[in-house]
Amino acid sequence: MSDSSKVGNFLEDKFLPVASAIGSERHLIALRDGLVMTMPLLIIGAFSMIIAEFPIQAYLDFMAGVFGENWNAFEGILMNATYGIVALVACFGVANSLAGGYKLDGVPAGILSLAAFFVINIIGDFDGEAAWPAGTFDATLLFTALVVALVVGEIYRILVQKNFTIKLPKSVPPAISRQFTALLPGAVILILFLIIRGLFVLTPWGSFPVFVTEVISTPLRGFGTSYIGTLIAVFGEHFLWSLGLHGSSIVISPIFEPMWIVNMSENLAGARNIVTLTFYECGVWIGGSGCTLPAVVYMLLFAKSRLIKQIGRLSIGPGIFNINEPVTFGLPVVLNPFLMVPYILTPAIVMTVQYIGTVIRVFPLQNYIVPWTTPFFISGILTTQSFMGFVMHVILFAVAFVCWLPFIRIWDNRQYKLEQQETQEA
């Protein structure tokens, strides 16, 4: 048995079962699903900003001349309706998904999670009027919303499974019976959060959200969005992908995405956070996880092996839209110790170049969300609203191509020799 086969078998026997168990963990799935629910709103809000603030003066003058000076007033309205309610949508979505993971009706859990979230937040006094601050609903308290959703989902599950519910006759319509099922668990949950709120008033933090922000969110986000934290995200995602598991769903969506969304929201308010959601999705994913689009271009244009050429032809269409399963499973990269090396290292190198370039202000910040399937190069312009975003993507593509080149060339030559031997034997 070759050394390559031994490594592949070791990974399959030792790491794959553990990684698979992590990937099916209910709470991580709930966090992923809840955040996915916010994506359509974030994309709509980002496009409203792109339309209202597109950095070409001739375009802005034209729109103002046709629609009036206040033509872009729609931006604030849509931003309040999209970015402005991210925490609420995630709070409902996570609890709903977590309860559904236990085969329970998730809607009551989601509603109770929203109610608990409002119980835990303290209303402020604004010019004599009592109201929740706007930051209660947007990404400012996203971590608080996620914590509340997970706690409420678990408490709701325990109480329902212990039959701490009101049972109505079968003749009662299910829509009504379902709401009474949530009555007793809801009372327990809201009273519990009311007690938690009262207890935190007595602490130095003054409220539960402030505690979460100062003790959990800020330190965690400080590390998770640093260069080292992002490097860990890159390694974790691509190592899992190389085992055949969806590393993006296991690592990126539930763990790092909330931090990157908060960073992006702060940037739109004037901050300067380097790592945002689009920094990763539109910078590290060049043709998908593993930065495989440059490898596909090589396979399509320069490969000698019939198999590699065919994979290139099959992969170029999906790869343009950042879908690269034909490469990951076709070359294959999965459980292939040789191709796992560029698959993991190339994104790390690309991220490093992008990070340094942004720190020294050669590359612009990426603050505007576009669908992750937006073709590379185009997304560079849209996420930065700058032509330098396109230049940045050209540089990153070149870096990824150089990283992949020796490995994909060796793999191509190996396959070509095998095909030649098969032809001679035939």
Give an overview of the whole structure.
The protein is built from 20 helices and two strands. It has 426 residues and is an all-alpha fold. It has two domains: 82-224, no CATH class; 229-425, no CATH class. It has a two-stranded antiparallel ribbon. α3 (39-53) packs antiparallel against α5 and α15 (293-301) crosses α20 (387-425). 42% of the residues are buried. The mean pLDDT is 88.
Give a short summary of the structure.
The protein is mainly α and 426 residues long. Helices cover 71% and strands 1% of the residues.
The description of the largest β-sheet is: 2 strands, antiparallel
Beta-strand percentage?
under 5%
Return the average pLDDT rounded to an integer: 88
Number of strands: 2
Widest sheet, order of strands:
1-2
Query: Measured on Cα atoms, how large is the radius of gyration?
Result: 25 Å
SSE order in H/E notation?
HHHHHHHEEHHHHHHHHHHHHH
Q: What is the overall shape? A: globular
Report the oligomer. Answer: single chain
User: How many individual domains?
Assistant: 2
Counting helices, strands and paired strands, the structural category is: mainly alpha
Instruction: State the helicity in percent bands.
Output: over 70%
The number of helical segments is 20
Low-pLDDT ranges: none
SSE layout and pairing:
Blueprint (H helix, E strand, L loop, with lengths): L2 H21 L2 H11 L2 H15 L3 H11 L6 H8 L4 H16 L4 H15 L3 E3 L2 E3 L10 H20 L12 H8 L1 H19 L6 H17 L2 H16 L4 H22 L8 H5 L11 H9 L4 H15 L4 H6 L6 H23 L18 H7 L2 H39 L1
Antiparallel strand pairs: 1-2
Helix pairs in contact: 2-6, 2-13, 3-5, 6-7, 6-8, 7-8, 7-10, 12-13, 12-18, 15-16, 15-20, 18-20, 19-20
